[in-house]
Amino acid sequence: MTATAALHLDGVSLAFGGHRALDALSLTLAPGEVYALLGPNGAGKTTTINLILGFLAPDSGAIAVDGVDAVADPLAARARTAYLPETVMLHPALTAIENLRYFTLLAGRRIDAARARALLTDAGLQGEAHGRRAGGFSKGMRQKVGVAIALAKEARLLLLDEPTSGLDASAANDLSTTIRAASARGIAVLMTTHDLFRVHDVAGRLGILRDGRLIDERATASLDPAALERLYLAALAA
After folding, report:
1. pTM of the entire structure?
2. How far apart are CA 113 and CA 171, in angstroms?
């Protein structure tokens, strides 16, 4: 029996005022797959994320998250999705544990402090930070709490929007470890990024968007870092 796709986009198009932001985008992610969506600013990457989250409705095409129609029932699809924006917003006066329990409760689930600690550890947050207030957290620490929230709500799809922007090398490496851990749990990961090194490090497949169209798609293992850079630059120049 074939597993239900974690994410399926079929011929998704959307125009704003005559400008086609997405043009017949089709994309499928299997459970546990890490997929990198590349492209210049304005290519349609953020529009794609907003469509998956149900913040926009397509003009045509279908979107499904874990088998749920994200157009007809965006709330149910969103319940299966975790989204980490470029800056993860946490309540600054609450600790990591309290933030995790709070946001998990908003998602309709209740966890105790021991479970929260275990999830934060799984997401890569060091134990000494579990009881600290989030107001002093770095971007990388905030991301780890965000991943713990995704684990707590048992999301089937994790959306990452420019996750390495503003991270130092150590924090970016930690993020790669966290993405692999989510993938190992069967969570599919769709990341939009300009960070080609991170793409080669964690993604199994990549797609290149240009002017709303998916112009290339490759298995990352088929490219060494230099070939990946050449492919990306050629796509931007086309």
Report:
1. 0.88
2. 25
Residue 34 pairs with which residues in a beta bridge? 189
Mean pLDDT of 106-122: 90
Q: In this model, does residue 203 exceed pLDDT 50?
A: yes
CATH value at residue 12: 3.40.50.300
Mean pLDDT, residues 147-172: 85
Q: Read out DSSP for 200-219?
A: HHH-SEEEEEETTEEEEEEE
Given a contact cutoff of 8 angstroms between Cβ atoms, the answer to whether 196 and 26 are in contact is no
Domain range for 94: 89-154
178/60 same-domain check: yes
The pLDDT tens digits for 167-179 are 778 888 888 888 8
Q: Among 128, 154, 180, give the residue marking a domain's end.
A: 154
Determine the Cα–Cα distance for residues 232 and 206; give it in Å rounded to an integer: 10
Structural domain total, the chain: 2
E strands within 106-204? 157-161, 188-192
- Please say which residue of 154, 171, 186 terminates a domain: 154
Per the DSSP assignment, residues forming a β-bridge with 37 are 192, 207
